[in-house]
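Figure 6 in text form: structure in, sequence out.
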């Protein structure tokens, strides 16, 4: 069974702190920015993702261009001596 520690420090909350959290429009705008617009940044504007994608494409392109004959292991010429 898990043991939980609850903070029972009761401090007085001022009216100013309460007013800060009453702005629902600001809260909703922050929520929308975090949740909805997470993936709407174009790939070309995110430099790290663009660089990673270009590196992956470069590696794939280089692997496709390699000559397949170079990858084949040829057996060595062994002469039989009697």
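Output sequence:
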């Amino acid at each position: 069974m898990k043991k939980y520690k609850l903070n029972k420090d009761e401090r007085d909350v001022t009216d100013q702190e309460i007013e800060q959290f009453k702005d629902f429009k600001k809260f909703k705008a922050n929520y929308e920015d975090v949740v909805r617009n997470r993936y709407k940044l174009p790939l070309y504007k995110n430099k790290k993702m663009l660089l990673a994608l270009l590196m992956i494409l470069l590696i794939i392109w280089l692997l496709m261009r390699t000559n397949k004959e170079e990858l084949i292991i040829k057996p060595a010429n062994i002469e039989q001596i009697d």
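Caption detail: The radius of gyration is 31 Å.
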